[in-house]
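Exercise 3.2. Students should predict the tertiary structure of the chain below and write it as structure tokens, then compare their answer with the key that follows.

Predict this chain's 3D structure.
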Amino acid sequence: MKKNKFLLLVVLTAFLCLICGCIYDGSTSGGSNNVTNNVTNEITQTVVDYNSNVTIEDLEDAVCVTTKMVESSVIGVTLKEVTTTTMGGKKYTFEDIEGIGSGVVYKRIENKNSNGELNSYTYYVITNAHVILSEDDEEHVVYAYLGNYNTEIKANILGYDEKIDLAVITFESYYYINPVEFQDVSKLEKGQFVIAVGNPDGYDYYGSVTFGVISNLGRYISFDTDGDGTHDYMGEYIQTDAAINPGNSGGGLFTLDGKLIGINSIKLASDTIDNMGFAIPINIVKVAVEEYLEKGLEIIRPRLGVMIIAVRDFNSEAMIQQGITSFPNIYGDEKPYGIYISEFTSSGSLVNQGLHKGDIILTFDGDKLYESSQISGFLNSLDEYRVGTVVEITYYCCKTKTVETMQITLKTGE
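Answer key:
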């Protein structure tokens, strides 16, 4: 680990390009991009030359450097239930651990006395809402656990959102912790190396690091967040095969240069499924945390106000139920797509806008709709679409049998 850090990252980038088969042939259909192509070819050739000197030790060194960079930024978060009892005429209060998770420090504020002398820091921490919330109505307290110092500090809950499963807590300490740096999610690629940091199965395994890849981006998973038996929220996630277990919730998913790309939240596990973990993308986390939860504000999401079925999800039973014999001949050679409106609710963005049951929404803000999860994901993402945003949709009108375009203003709904 004596290598220059910058050189190490350059070498690692070269290694990643080699194993992913990143080869560019420089071909183009026109002559206006010759300068760009020449530069790309030169970079490609340089990468190929570099790869002859790359070793597994270089990759190991990069993982170790990144781990040291970010491990202190991922702390423990403890939920304790407070119980009070009276014995022998004396009142006793106990705090029993109900749950343990992880959290990521993303902001540090200096606290100074009247003389301008630094005496402590206030830290802001991202974690999962389910880590700091209890299912019962008893009194609870939350603690930040700094495993490197074996120190537990009472924390305050600033805000949380159960749908996106995020929370922000804050605590004060004289220990120095580096906040994490966020990575632009748009720059991520499937197959990119990542590490997950957290506390699987409690503090006996505090600060565990696992290594893997981004299995896929833009995965959508639905949940019943209000306990009524109906899935009411569709969330977007980064899928990874870096091991995530109970206790990792609220921990960080990092790139190999130490940037935070997601908050580890859930995993799928069964006798036939393994290594399928999911993190909330940092673009969603950043908006939710900085604009809402840190300020204690409730997140209000737009809703369409319709019940929908993806055209590609229709089977014979669904077609009979909806009274459909065939879909409109508007697709040419393309496989039918779009979102079929099966019912309207009392309020929402599409209510009283001239649409009808049986209309098919084809595009939303220029994106073709293939799955109902797409539009749910758009409306829940926070970073692009909010209440008041104006969006253009195209739709097939079942009354006029034509494809129409409409501007809608996103609104709240039931």
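Discussion points: The chain is about 20% helix and 40% strand. Confidence is low (pLDDT under 50) at residues 1-50.
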